[in-house]
Amino acid sequence: MFYTCGPNEAMVVSGFGRSPPLMIAGGRVFVIPCIQQIQRITLNTLTLNVKSDKVYTRHGVPISVTGIAQVKIQGQNKEMLATACQMFMGKSEAEIAVIALETLEGHQRAIIAHLTVEEIYQDRKKFSEQVFKVASSDLVNMGIGVVSYTLKDVHDDQDYLHSLGKARTAQVQKDARIGEAQYKRDAVMREAHAMQEKVSAQYKNEIEMAKSQRDYELKKAAYDVEVNTKKAESEMAYQLQVAKTKQRIEEEKMQVQVVERTQQITLQEQEIIRKEMELEAKIKKPAEAEKYRLERLAEAQRLQLIMEAEAEAESIKMRGDAEAFALEAKGRAEAEQMSKKAEAFKQYKDGAMVDMLLEKLPLMAEEISKPLSEANKVTMVSSGGSEVGAAKLAGEVLEIMTRLPAAVEKLTGIDISQAGGRTGMVH
């Protein structure tokens, strides 16, 4: 079965399985019925009215003292709680308060006996601290802690404290009367002395006033001269300062104009830089890009032309090499042919030449007839100028005959003008 308690109460469980007993301050615990037992002890703060009536002090004066103390069982300290359970378990809150009260009262009476009435009455804090210190050390052994202790009242039945008050009051009143008389005496003396000093001060004051008047007049005259001088200097200084101020203002204006002009120049320079950058971005950069593109294009065209020229040169060289080789082969063939013709001419001599001539006669006739074929008209006149026409015809035939050796040489390669009697025969 579960049992609970608040923070102002502690539970102690004993019996089977609980050795030593279990102490719970503000919580819950499970208790087995019949074989375990649960007990409770209060942790409330107890207010004690500690009275000590007619206790004799160190000088034998009986006085009555009343103090207020706050005490409680310390549930958070396990050792003090265990001690309190051993001493107060089963007792009610009132019984615990009585035990604590008697202990505090005993200590309070003991401390009163060691002090005088004056010490207790005049220094209550010291008395309270002593009672708190001594009572706390004793109550701790019972598991009780003293939260606070305050001296509430001190009185006696013999009017001792009242007499102390009267004597003090009489002393104070005496001191007050003496003080008042001394004050009045001093006041009269101070008044007479003050009157004397007043008259003396009055005469001295009049003398000083006369001296002051004289000094005033002298100094005033000197001051007037100095003031007038200072006024003149001040006026001149003022005019000079005005001129300086005007000059400084003009200089400041000039400086401002210089600064403004400098700022304008700076702005113009920045505007020029901006326009240059804008020109650079809008015109120069595209122009450079176009230039670069055209250069690349020209370079590509140049490389293309070079490659085409190289290809053409290579082609021409190859054609030249082929034509040279063909010419060389043709030359070798013609040389070989001429060599063979020479050998044939050497072997057959005139017969070979006649045979070749006969072969070439059709071509010779063609060459001879070419001039005649170019003539538009041939007129033969037998009467009148027949000799002239015959002579003209004879001249043309003679011209054809003179061309015959060249044609034969061209066709046969034989110079018939060098061929002995045959040449003469042709002519």
TrEMBL record:
InterPro entries: Band_7, Band_7/SPFH_dom_sf, Flotillin_C, Flotillin_fam
Every Band domain range: 84-266
Compartments it resides in: Membrane; Endosome
Protein name: Flotillin
Keyword Membrane assigned: yes
Keyword Membrane: yes
Pfam families named in the record: Band_7, Flot
Any single GO BP term: positive regulation of cell-cell adhesion mediated by cadherin
Keywords for this protein: Endosome, Membrane
Assembly and oligomerization: Heterooligomeric complex.
One Gene Ontology MF term: protease binding
SMART domains assigned: PHB
UniProt family annotation: Belongs to the band 7/mec-2 family. Flotillin subfamily.
Main subcellular location: membrane
Species whose genome carries this gene: Sparus aurata
Cellular component aspect of the GO annotation: endosome; flotillin complex
